[in-house]
Amino acid sequence: MSFLRFAARRVAEMAATLLAASFVVFGALYLAPGNPAGFLLAGRSASPDALAAINAQYHLDDPFAVRYLSWLGDVVQGDFGRSLTYRTDVSRLLADRLPTTLLLIGMALVVVVVVGLLLGRLSAVRGGATDTAVLVGTAFAVGTPSFVAAVLLQGVFAVQLGWFPSSGAGDGLLDEVRHLTLPAIALALYLIGMLARVTRSAMLEALDSEHVTVARSRGVPERQVIRRHVFRNSLGTVLTTGGLIVSTLLVCTVLVETAFSIGGVGQLLELSTSTKDFPTVQAISLIIVALFMSVNLVVDLLLPLVDPRIALGTRSSSA
């Protein structure tokens, strides 16, 4: 199968999955207790005429299929509807908050990749006391939930030492980076431990392979063996964890943003869920699904390039 044909098939599969996900996202909220009309009334009693006017304004009385198709048509055009809580377009809310969340996720992802790969490589190559220290450290990291890490980092580095702000997102790029440093570390801690252990296992497996033994017997320098034959061959295994890493970042962002009062999309999702703001929750949920699937698509396309031993379509068919 050619690369272009494989890419086209994966994009088509992604579009079909997104369509199914949109139906689930739209329909799931209507199965939850409560309704948007009750929130809009804020607990006040209303006459049947007033209630009917609210339902007509927000199309709450339309059949489910009509509401879904109308919503889907608007989403395709970039219109996610109007927030019931903030009384403004959801697209505007997302435009104001999404850059902060993406910067936070980007910073956390950089920390995860750099530190996780470095620790995994050191643990596999050096062994001994270094390996033991990395295993102990990563066990602590994996066992620490993001919200616990957030509280600990706030208490030590924000309250006691005063090195970083304890809340907010900052104003301007440099100030934002400073405000988001502790949240990014809290978000990345668990994933650093996971990626380090995956990298270590993949490299140890590669070290025991026959082609590494042959390379060493031919007098190839150890650094070159590690770089070209061990680390590179382990990247395929490491890359397959990309989807899990991103999905974890997206989910844990809600907890971390709430803990640090960042005001990004994660905190918006938490507030919108508690207030039954259906259009906002639906938009954010669909964006999260789209981001997760986009990462999986990129991983599928990169795998054959990183590891030529993997045939096009192998991962997709096995999944």
From TrEMBL:
<keyword id="KW-1133">Transmembrane helix</keyword>
<protein>
    <submittedName>
        <fullName>ABC transporter permease</fullName>
    </submittedName>
</protein>
<dbReference type="InterPro" id="IPR045621">
    <property type="entry name" value="BPD_transp_1_N"/>
</dbReference>
<feature type="transmembrane region" description="Helical">
    <location>
        <begin position="237"/>
        <end position="263"/>
    </location>
</feature>
<feature type="domain" description="ABC transmembrane type-1">
    <location>
        <begin position="98"/>
        <end position="299"/>
    </location>
</feature>
<feature type="transmembrane region" description="Helical">
    <location>
        <begin position="132"/>
        <end position="157"/>
    </location>
</feature>
<keyword id="KW-1003">Cell membrane</keyword>
<feature type="transmembrane region" description="Helical">
    <location>
        <begin position="101"/>
        <end position="120"/>
    </location>
</feature>
<dbReference type="Pfam" id="PF00528">
    <property type="entry name" value="BPD_transp_1"/>
</dbReference>
<feature type="transmembrane region" description="Helical">
    <location>
        <begin position="12"/>
        <end position="32"/>
    </location>
</feature>
<keyword id="KW-0472">Membrane</keyword>
<feature type="transmembrane region" description="Helical">
    <location>
        <begin position="283"/>
        <end position="306"/>
    </location>
</feature>
<keyword id="KW-0813">Transport</keyword>
<dbReference type="InterPro" id="IPR000515">
    <property type="entry name" value="MetI-like"/>
</dbReference>
<dbReference type="Pfam" id="PF19300">
    <property type="entry name" value="BPD_transp_1_N"/>
</dbReference>
<dbReference type="InterPro" id="IPR035906">
    <property type="entry name" value="MetI-like_sf"/>
</dbReference>
<feature type="transmembrane region" description="Helical">
    <location>
        <begin position="177"/>
        <end position="196"/>
    </location>
</feature>
<comment type="similarity">
    <text>Belongs to the binding-protein-dependent transport system permease family.</text>
</comment>
<keyword id="KW-0812">Transmembrane</keyword>
